[in-house]
Amino acid sequence: MAERSRSHGGARGGARGGGARGRAPRRGTAPLTVAGRTLACTVSVAVLGASGFTWYEYRSLDDGMIKSTALSEAKKNAPPHLDKSVNLLLIGLDSRKDMDGNDLPKQFVEDELHAGSSEIGGYNTNALIVLHIPANGGKVTALSVPRDDYVQTVGADGKMHKIKEAYGIAKGAAEQKLAGKGLSKSELERQSREAGRSATIQTVQSFLDVPIDHFAEVNLIGFYDIAKAVEPIQVCLNHPVDDPIIARTATHEGGGTGLKLPAGISSLDAAQALSFVRQRHHLTNGDLDRTHRQQAFISSVEYRLKQQGILNDFGQMQKLFAVVKKDVVIDNEWNILDFARQAPNLTGGNVEFNTLPITGFKSVGGQEVNTVNPDLIKKIVQQLFNHEPAPPAPPAPAATPGDAPDDPAAAPAASAAASTAAGGPAKAVVDVNAAAGAGAASNESKALAELGYQAGRIGDAPARTRATTVAYGAGAKSDAQQLATRYGVTATPSGTVPAGHILLTLAVTRTPSPTPAAPSGTAAPGEPSADPVAGLPMQGPAVKAGGIPCVD
After folding, report:
1. What pLDDT, in 10s, does the model give residues 287-340?
2. Interstrand relation of 469-472 and 491-493 (parallel, antiparallel or unpaired)
3. Which domains does the chain have, with CATH numbers?
4. Which end of the chain has the lower number of beta carbons within 10 A, N or C?
5. C-alpha distances in Å from residue 30, one per residue of 14, 35, 176
6. 229 in Cβ contact with 319 (< 8 Å)
7. Is the pTM of this model over 0.70?
């Protein structure tokens, strides 16, 4: 159960020290023990003093943090640790509820943030980022897991779901089990959220095949409050964006954030910052581009904290942690002192964010999901975290006789292109027109061919085109809907598009989709690569910290 830590070390200290309480030390070892502890304290104070803080100040920051025990169950089923590195999981919860399960104020959620009503979002984890801090310091590797990846859940119901849904499924099941036990609303919320956290951690561990040592969770209001504490926040866009708000109706779920920014660097307030990381419509790659936005925002905040000297100013840190204590949940084995010792690895441009690759899109139960290759994902993570030789892309798995294409239990193909090569159904032909010219259309066509679509004709779209559209002919509806998801738009039928074809018209502000990188530059067998990311098929370009990175 999540709880407020009342002293430094929280529940961890109690768990370790309970058995020894009241036991007299052996005479022969007492002086050595005392000397050892004195030396350890002296060294700790010296280290803290050198960084500008005192032990008391760190205790002050740690006291009052909301602590969770969700790691305890996850650690029982965690993969083994190969060294003393640390893996941190950052969870962004898309919940319009406070810590006690009450709806956030309507005026705040709907009018100021344009985030829809409290009934929207549920308990989906719309951001999952694993930070790997090497045992010997050095560059921190950060990996984002796209929220719609279709994976085997652990600790939820054990079925295939979008990875973002593991939290809500486990939370709902826990609520049913706890019903009738006389718990207050707030206590029921806390205990059921613990089940959601545990399921999320276990699912991420299983999917990536790495142990999670610590985690931090922040929800919608927490993100806003943190952004408010450090605003204005500078971000950089490669292209201007205009994401008008679409009202929700009986036939349309609505959407849009209201964000309108020019290309280049902009200074955002807290509400704009939330829109910046939540936008998914009118982006070339939809949710995948939103993942890069999240990475860029974290990089920009870290850069601002460092530039403003907040990380070395106890008074400023107190103000920031006053917000963190209210809205952020961390595991009960993580204290601020431990994190402070690791903090140098997280600043000064020492972090690089990458997004784990998907293989395509698929419709399951009326919902679009990202298909993934779990074996390739595990090999990529092993390469990045353990610096082993980069893995070659494996061939597509052979289809199992009797498996239905849309069977939720069926393993997704390694890639749409590989599926076609192996004898699977060919995707529709995509004709591409681009307002930026035939060159942009050609690049986009090549990128789509990597995903298994058949290349069609290319051409120019009118220069005044301001909205990307996807139209389809007879027999191409399913492929068109998957393609439209990629661009954050809606596919529409057209009598002028030939049967089996899709017409993609790219707006003038759109750029070619990143083509999955082919393995290249791989180190010789047994030799670590100078750049562990080199040759790995990541989803789009890396986002590097240490400044204000530009993204789409």
Report:
1. 777 788 888 888 888 888 777 776 667 677 777 777 778 778 889 988 666 665
2. parallel
3. 66-357+541-551 (3.40.630.190), 360-396+406-506 (3.30.70.2390)
4. N
5. 22, 9, 52
6. yes
7. no
